[in-house]
Design goal:
heterodimer; A: 239 residues; alpha/beta; 8-stranded mixed sheet; 7 helices; globular; B: alpha+beta; Dna Ligase, domain 1; 3 domains; elongated
């Protein structure tokens, strides 16, 4: 495992296109500096430390599968490490109570709110432009785009080069880019895809005492290139 | 050789400073009616010290100021004499300060001690309340305890500066310590610190008159670039950064289109300043062609930042400012920034503030990670989605909306909207004392397709809405 300072230095050299001065390149997926831990211990163990930096990763799943919960968890872990995080909220769905409950440092979160009332195609186009601006600016530990409520038809109309361009933008940077969607969209070779399935956990049998206690999330990790594959259960509680 | 000007009550400080600046670049404003100036070298121009004093008074009179002028070998003696002397002009040869000051009242020290941080503040002498030579300076705070060295001198029966000067220094030091000794040095006319010359305020402004009016932002970017570069170089030379950027565009219609950008951090990079100005003008374009461009900045001390090898540096304020300006232009004003919690129980309430992260603490100072706790998140519909809810025995059994992709929506595979489990109601209400009142019964429902929603019934209209989906 490399020293974090060495990883930071190497990453800075890469950002300035000076990585050829390095005599050895670190193996992808190894070392603390090249991954962004998600904050979920079991998931980080399967991911060999966390989400790969400089790569495009995905969180995909149906409603109530825990996509937003996992996204906020990743951002909370990033802001707690002192990094800054950006979220392009395409349809303006983020809930402040959930952000606070997740433990995100609000001062380190850049929240870019789309228009909920915009036509989906237009909202997605603007959100992608905003994501590109954030990635080009650099310096973010985690940058995410929330497309969970985007209609499949609108997503399928996106040019296939869209995600390649995003991938090229963050290549060599320290940013872990994350797409949250209803199903895998980018299918990036370098990143990981987290397919989520979730079920609400209820407590109490009687009508009056019944309450929703949390969410049991099953995360299936797929990344053939990185050779990380597995399934892990993450339990989320209500704040 | 130093001079001091003491103006009569009601005189303008600016006029007094103007008189001083006409004689010497090294002057210090020591009070609202009190200016001290370094007269070294002026003897070659005017002759004797008396001639300099005459010329100072004549210049002041031309500007409508009645001043008393004192010239001495030290600034302290000059100031004390200008305030305390009965003569319009007092000139003391170097070395003669103690004798000249000996007859002046003790209370005059109050007006000079507040300029010296090591000497305690001294209240004005209550025994000389209306002496025109001893003006009460409102800037001199009274010692709340009254137990200061000057009060002690008064208790000892001393009334003049000469009385203090004649005391044995060792005895003063033994009884009053260093502050007493410093007061005695002032009474001798000695300076406790050198003159601090006032630095005239510099204007950071550039203007360009155009031979032909320009229309559109592209040609304007070249003009702004030409103006910003010398401005940024000027800021750099002075160790300053721009706190506020002002862009004034004089239009052919004789109107002035003025924009002011508050910058989150001192910036002195010409390209960043130009980009920020252009992005702002994209959102607020001028109404007509431009024939004069003026760029000015409010300067502030530049940033000094120590980076670390062990922590990831944040983007610079220049980068963040540019990013925020671009994002605001793309997404709209107020749609980008950091969220802020607001003091209300209203569901979904929040505020936004500019994104301005601080540098992270070094790894050694960072607090330990809190124990891992994954909190369930809600995806909130900013505008609640109307729903049709069938209720039996007081509990919802079916939830249907017309919004595609949501609970029980028609034409999707989201199921029929039948409720598998539900919990509630939780009654909330608030803001009944204002117009934005809410009163609702909230339910958590899990539908047959596994999706869990927060729904509520508005008690005012009896209508049902989806508030969000648990995700």
């Amino acid at each position: 495992m490399s020293h974090p300072a060495a990883a930071v230095l190497e990453s800075a050299l890469r950002a300035r296109k000076l990585d050829r001065t390095l005599t050895t390149a670190l193996q992808p997926g190894k070392g603390d500096g090249l991954v962004a831990p998600t904050g979920a211990t079991a998931l980080d163990a399967v991911l060999h430390g966390g989400l790969p930096r400089g790569e495009l990763s995905e969180v995909a799943g149906a409603p109530s599968s825990g996509r937003t919960t996992l996204l906020l968890q990743v951002m909370a872990a990033a802001t707690h490490r002192g990094e800054i995080a950006a979220l392009v909220d395409t349809f303006d769905r983020l809930d402040l109570g959930s952000i606070v409950a997740a433990g995100i440092d609000l001062d380190r979160l850049l929240w870019i709110r789309g228009e909920a009332s915009s036509p989906p195609d237009r909202a997605i186009e603007r959100a992608l432009k905003a994501l590109n601006l954030v990635l080009q600016s650099g310096g973010f530990g985690v940058a995410a785009i929330d497309l969970a409520d985007a209609p499949s038809s609108a997503l399928s109309r996106l040019p296939f080069t869209t995600w390649m361009r995003v991938q090229r933008t963050i290549e060599g940077s320290e940013t872990a880019c994350l797409i949250v969607g209803p199903h895998p969209i980018a299918r990036s070779a370098g990143g990981v895809t987290l397919s989520l399935g979730g079920a609400s956990r209820w407590a109490g049998d009687a009508d009056r005492s019944r309450r929703i206690a949390g969410l049991d999330v099953t995360v299936r990790v797929v990344s053939p290139r990185r050779r990380v594959e597995g399934e892990v259960a993450v339990a989320a509680e209500f704040a | 050789m130093f001079g001091a000007l003491y103006a009569s009550e009601g005189s303008s400080t600016d006029a007094l400073v103007g008189v001083a600046a006409e004689f010497s670049p090294r002057y210090e404003v020591t009070g609202p009616r009190d200016v001290t100036l370094d007269l070294s070298g002026l003897a070659r121009l005017f002759g004797s010290a008396r001639a300099i004093a005459d010329e100072l008074q004549r210049t002041a009179a031309e500007r409508g100021l009645a001043v008393r002028v004192a010239i001495a070998g030290t600034t302290t003696a000059a100031r004390l004499l200008a305030r305390g002397s009965h003569h319009a002009i007092t000139v003391i040869d170097p070395g003669g300060e103690p004798e000249a000051l000996a007859s002046l009242p003790l209370a005059l020290l109050a007006n000079v001690t507040n300029e010296h941080s090591n000497v305690p503040n001294v209240p004005n002498d209550p025994n000389v309340p209306n002496d025109p030579n001893v003006p009460n300076d409102p800037n001199v705070p009274n010692d709340p305890n009254g137990s200061n060295e000057l009060a002690t001198f008064r208790k000892w029966g001393l009334r003049t500066l000469g009385d203090i000067a004649r005391l044995p220094p060792d005895a003063v030091a033994a009884r009053l310590g260093q502050p007493g000794v410093q007061l005695q040095r002032l009474a001798h006319g000695e300076d406790l610190r050198p003159l601090r010359p006032a630095v005239p305020e510099e204007r950071f402004e550039r203007a360009l008159d155009l031979e032909w009016p320009i229309d559109g932002l592209e040609p304007l970017s070249f003009v702004l670039g030409r103006l910003m570069e010398p401005l940024a170089a000027h800021l750099d030379r002075r160790g300053r950064g721009a706190a506020v950027l002002h862009v004034r565009l004089h239009l052919v219609t004789r109107a002035v289109h003025e924009r002011a950008l508050q910058l989150p951090a001192p910036i002195k990079d010409a390209r960043t300043l130009r980009t920020l100005a252009l992005l702002d003008l994209e959102s607020h374009p001028p109404a007509a062609a431009i024939d004069r461009v003026v760029v000015a900045v409010d300067p502030t001390p530049a940033r000094v930042l120590q980076f670390s090898l062990l922590t990831r540096p944040l983007p610079s304020p220049e980068q963040i400012s540019t990013l925020m300006a671009r994002l605001s232009a793309l997404m709209g004003e107020g749609r980008c920034g950091s969220p802020v919690a607001v003091d209300t129980w209203q569901p979904g309430a929040f505020a936004m503030k500019p994104f301005a992260p601080s540098q992270p603490p070094s790894p050694g100072l960072r607090t330990a990670a809190p124990p891992h706790r994954c909190a369930v998140a809600l995806r909130r519909f900013r505008i609640p989605v109307p729903a049709r809810v069938r209720v039996e025995q007081g509990r919802p059994i079916r939830v249907i909306t017309d919004r595609r992709g949501l609970a029980g929506s028609v034409g999707t595979n989201s199921g029929t909207g039948s409720v598998a489990r539900c919990a509630g109601p939780w009654r909330t209400a608030g803001n009944w004392w204002t117009k934005g009142t809410w009163e609702r019964d909230e339910w958590d429902v899990t539908l047959s397709d596994g999706a869990t929603y927060c729904v509520f019934r508005d008690r005012g209209t009896d209508a049902w809405f989806l508030e969000g989906v648990v995700d």
